[in-house]
Specification:
This protein is an alpha+beta fold. The protein folds into 3 domains: 80 residues; 202 residues, no CATH class; 110 residues, no CATH class. The protein contains 12 helices and 14 strands. The strands form 4 sheets. Strands 1, 2, 4, 6, 7 and 8 form a 6-stranded antiparallel β-sheet that branches. A 4-stranded mixed β-sheet has the order 11-10-9-12, with helices on one face. β13 and β14 form a beta hairpin. α1 packs across α3 and α2 packs antiparallel against α3. The structure holds zinc ion. The site of zinc ion (ZN) has 5 residues, from loops.
């Protein structure tokens, strides 16, 4: 979450957090890291616990975190990443002592404390129709549970899968809200039962051509002194026998990246998910993203959604308006205003000045623009079949249309213009998909 620009005054607690984050960042050894990490984690956990009490506490805690993160973010210091990493980890993972086991007889030996982790399975989708979200029918929920157990989770890992397909605006929007939500799902994971949750129907009905959706779950495994076994790939790396290790050393068989699904396992998982995902997302093109811990999954999906939205726009223009990718060229410029920092990409018919479609490529929190971003954007456009790309060097102020609020896009002459549909194409509601 990017800190807002509001600047509440610093409290002693905020200063303590800043000091600990800076100390953790300055540390030069794993031993010293651990020292600061324990203290920082304790502070953050206390703060989050206080925030969960009521709405006023939640607001106070959110303000404190903003106060702390803002100056660190401005410095783009590594201490910012250290603190955000700690906050996210405190939200998405928790160790439950053995004495707190929900039902010892049913849920495992008494001497074992348990680790729980909130995970997300992002899906990128695009469609000319509204992309579905909301309740997942029970048979599909059961199918996804089975698939996660077969392809992703280590044996005997307990699971709670939320019965909702979330859109980004339906996910918790503050740290405290995320912590409350995570607690609920992690509690259910300890009981190995799926979770029925209610989502307030959002007033945000903005439709996008492409968007992300999320399956959210929590997993629970016995804590082990040698490390907790959560995912199948951990189990596989651990389970290699001597003959296999020997064969890898002699390069008889190829070493696969540890900590990652093997290409074969990945394609089996993706293939198995196709049918249930198609049932959840009818009339959509979609791409399953890697299963990760909640915050890492969201960040990875935000990254992947940028080239995905370029692909979606090019495919949309091709299939619906019959403009082949090589009939288009792109103009790319950076737009900036306070906290907002993004590239806007115009798709223009060759031989004309009309911007027929625009795509926004946001810079993500703590992502520094070192000039390589335009290389990534050009590569994504090229991969989508748009070979001619014009990069404008000046930075434009963020601008929206006064009438309809749509983002404005740069044309090849460096003017900022409105998207225009070709006159003979009546796309009805698609007109408002900016
Ligand atoms: Zn307008």
């Amino acid at each position: 979450m990017k800190p807002s620009r509001a600047k509440p005054k610093q409290t002693a607690q905020a200063l303590r957090l800043i000091e600990l984050a800076q100390a953790l960042n300055e540390s030069s050894s794993r031993l010293e890291d651990d020292f600061w990490d324990v203290r920082l984690t304790t502070e953050v956990n206390q703060l989050l616990a206080f925030g969960k009490k009521d709405a006023n506490s939640a607001q106070a805690v959110e303000n404190t975190l903003t106060t702390v993160l803002e100056p660190l973010y401005q410095d783009t210091s590594m201490a910012y990443s250290a603190l955000v990493g700690t906050i996210e980890s405190c939200i998405e993972s928790k160790t439950w002592p053995a004495s707190m086991a929900p039902d010892v007889a049913k849920h495992g030996p008494k001497d074992s404390s348990q680790d729980t982790l909130l995970i997300a399975i992002p899906i990128l989708a695009w469609s000319r129709f509204p992309i579905p979200r909301g309740g997942i029918p029970l048979p599909l929920l059961k199918e996804f549970r089975q698939l996660l157990q077969t392809h992703i989770l280590a044996s005997n890992v307990k699971l709670s899968l939320c019965n909702q397909l979330f859109s980004p605006d339906q996910l918790p929007q503050t740290y405290v809200a995320a912590a409350l939500f995570a607690d609920q799902v992690m509690q259910a994971a300890r009981l190995d039962s799926d979770l029925a949750i209610k989502i307030k129907e959002s007033s945000d009905n903005t439709r996008f051509l492409s968007d992300s959706r999320y399956l959210i779950a929590a997993i629970c495994a016995p804590k082990n002194t040698a490390g907790t076994l959560l995912f199948r790939w951990q189990e596989e790396a651990d389970g290699k026998d001597a003959a296999e290790k020997e064969a890898i050393a002699k390069e008889v068989i190829k070493q696969e990246t540890p900590g990652k699904m093997s290409p074969a396992a990945l394609s089996a998982w993706v293939e198995a998910c196709k049918k249930p995902l198609a049932a959840l997302l009818p009339a959509c093109a979609f791409e399953l993203q890697p299963v990760k811990a909640y915050h890492a999954a969201l960040l990875a999906a935000d990254r992947a959604s940028r080239p995905w939205s370029i692909n979606a726009a090019v495919a949309f223009l091709h299939t619906l308006l019959n403009h082949a990718p090589d009939a288009l060229f792109a103009v790319v410029a950076r737009f900036q205003d306070g906290d907002e920092d993004e590239y806007r990409i115009s798709l223009i018919l060759r031989g004309s000045r009309t911007v027929v479609y625009g795509v926004i490529w946001p810079l993500l929190p703590s992502e520094e623009e070192s000039g390589s971003m335009t290389t990534d954007i050009t590569a994504a456009l090229n991969a989508a079949g748009v070979s001619k790309v014009v990069l404008l060097d000046r930075i434009f102020p963020i601008e929206y249309c006064d009438d309809c609020g749509a983002a404005l896009y740069p044309d090849a002459e460096g003017e900022v213009v409105h998207i225009e549909w070709p006159e003979d194409q009546d796309q009805g509601s698609m007109r408002h998909l900016h």
